[in-house]
Amino acid sequence: MQSPDIMSVEVLEEYSLKLTFTNGETKIFDIKPLMVVHTLHRHH
User: Fold this and answer.
1) InterPro entries, from UniProt (predicted)?
2) Residue 11 falls within a domain, yes or no?
């Protein structure tokens, strides 16, 4: 089964993204952990 495509992305506070998919589902993703990893790698 193929995953639905992302239809829209809304930027929320506190490094969160609200994704709306083509099947009508919405999910909120916390990207804070990714920001920390990016910052650590950037300084090396």
Assistant:
1) DUF2442 (IPR018841), NE0471-like_N (IPR036782)
2) yes
